[in-house]
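Handoff note, outgoing to incoming analyst
You'll be picking up this chain. Sequence as last confirmed:
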Amino acid sequence: MTERIYSTESYAREMTARVLRIDADDRRLLLDRTVFYPGGGGQPHDVGSLWVGDDELEVVRVTQDADGVWHWVAATALPKEGTEVRGELDWVRRHALMRTHTAMHALCGVVWERYRSPVTGGNMKPGEGRLDFDLPDWQADDRAVIEEELNRQLALRRTVEIDFLPREEADRDPSLIRTKVNLLPASIRTVRIVDIVGLDRQADGGTHVSDTGQVGIARIVKVESKGRGFRRIRVAVADDPEPSP
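Most recent structure output, in case you need it:
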């Protein structure tokens, strides 16, 4: 029921929408369209504001279910169904998440090229993220080598493209799933693909910058042993001096 603008337009930061449904007990609104990412794949949900005329409603949480995307607001009075609202993201935070997420995909591509190792877990916050890999042959010197190659790839300004594939077609290409276990629910019939052209192509629902040059410098800040050959690689991106596209 919700048009997910963020899925095709990562740089859209504002929208107008209409309230489809309200849940007064949970203080949340179901909208017919949104730029607010509801979280998933390790990327946190967006925050920001909705306006009803001059009245601002702070968006503190965003989730999705079979009905669409819900916006949880910090407000004592909720707009009625059918009300038109204007929404705006906390763009500095969102853009930091986009840069972080793209850096993590680039790291995934670099590790895959060198080790053919799948991801076993991951998470992120603005400017920082971590990916877990099955890397039984990892050596201490690999950290500097991977970081150097990661930044070389980012500096190439590789284009980041979004595509959509029918589920049957996506299932025929196992390389699109870079996690050790396929986490795509059977109910998803159209698979969103994020392609860092020439480096990493995988199924993903999150938001990304349009080319790797916008990530800036990435550092591997720590590599942790998680037992039996598993490694947790923590990566950070430098502060963004120009958060606007």
